[in-house]
Structure formats: C-alpha cells, structure tokens
Amino acid sequence: MTAELFTKHYSDPQRCAAAVRHYAWLAAHARPLRQPELRVIGPRHLAFDEIDGRHAQPRDLPLLAAMMGDAHGAAWTGELHRARLNQTHPLPGGFRLHDYVASRTLVLQRRWEQGFLANYQPCET
Hints:
There is one protein chain. The protein has 125 residues and is of the alpha+beta class. The chain folds into two domains: 1-50, no CATH class; 82-125, no CATH class. It has helices spanning 13-29, 61-78, 100-113, and strands at 5-9, 38-41, 45-49, 89-91, 95-97. A three-stranded antiparallel sheet has the order 1-3-2, with helices on one face. A two-stranded antiparallel sheet has the order 4-5.
C-alpha cells in the first residue's frame, strides 16, 4: 500500500530550496504545528504525505489562531528571541533570517514610487 502524496511545484530551484529550508525550520522550532512528512525533494517540486481532513473554515479561526500562537511561542522560546529586526540572524543548520527592516523599507519605497502611499516619507540611504 502506498501513501497518497501532495506535490507542490515551484517556479525555480531556488524557491524550492527555500521551501525545504522553511519546512525544516518549522519542523524544528514550531513543534505545535503538525506538518506532513516531506517525502520527495525534486529540483522544482516537493512531495508531502497527504493529510486526512478538511480545509479550514471560518469557524476554525479561533483554533487556528491559538495554534499559530503556540507555534510562535515555541519558535520565540527556542530561537527567535535572539533575533533583531534590523539584522540578519543566523539559525541552526546554516539557515538565516534576513533583516526584516531593510526588506520592508524596500517594499514601502516601491509602493510609494508606484503612488500607493501618499504620506510615506522615503528613508535616506
């Protein structure tokens, strides 16, 4: 008997590799979240065990919020409390969290240039 697999496809190998790193990090640091087993890592796809059940419904939001809060708490306790928003933070296993402030500043700058943020004041670089 073979298990059913769910395959997720990616546009390029870099995005696929990033998804594997994210999966591994969540598996190690956000243990309250139940994740399917990752069975196949291809150059542009990942195949996971199929999970029994149904998709979340609006009535599930309180439970989902509690689960996400528990996962965030576990990640905070294990590693995230050492990270700073304005610095890249190395993680175990050769992973890293990128500087959040710089990435958000870049996005805001682009949105301002596109005319979506009338009151935004661009940062001097």
